[in-house]
Amino acid sequence: MTDASFTELVRLRDDEASDAPAVTVDSFADQSNAGAVRIEPGDDARLLLPHLDHVTRVEVNFPSFTDGRGYSAAQILREAGYTGEVRAVGDVAVDQLGYMRRCGFDAFQPEVPMNEADVEAAFTRWENVYQKTSDGRVPIWALRHGEADG
Fold first, then answer.
1. pLDDT tens digits, 16-56
2. Residue 18 gets which letter from DSSP?
3. pTM
4. How far, in Å, CA of 47 to CA of 30, rounded?
5. β 10-11/107-110 pair status
6. Alpha helix (H) residue ranges in 23-105
7. The domain spanning residue 50 has which CATH number?
8. Which domain holds residue 47?
């Protein structure tokens, strides 16, 4: 039996994100000095767009792995130019990591720790991608047509 290591927080960034507690989107208006915001299912990520310049971390809660609304929240933030950390929290499964990364998530804090080898495999599984999204990878169609910047 091998000694597997498990991780509770996976970060794809080198910089340090704020460890401050995240406030809800609703309470953010009253605490505009908050550096971290938590988006719950049903919250509108667009409410944060005017304030992105001073938010260092956005947590997106996944109460159930079947609730995909958080993917849209991450994509909205990245398309608006947000460069801070976007962290998926909650019921995050290892088989979702690659898709979440494509939508703009760069940190993952699952309820249940993940095996580090499984996490690495999830991020390296597919060499090529088909859609243009927020993670900077060039879609295969763009590579085929010599459009290296997608």
1. 666 778 888 888 866 667 789 999 999 999 999 998 888 89
2. P
3. 0.82
4. 13
5. antiparallel
6. 25-28, 69-79, 97-103
7. 3.40.50
8. 6-144
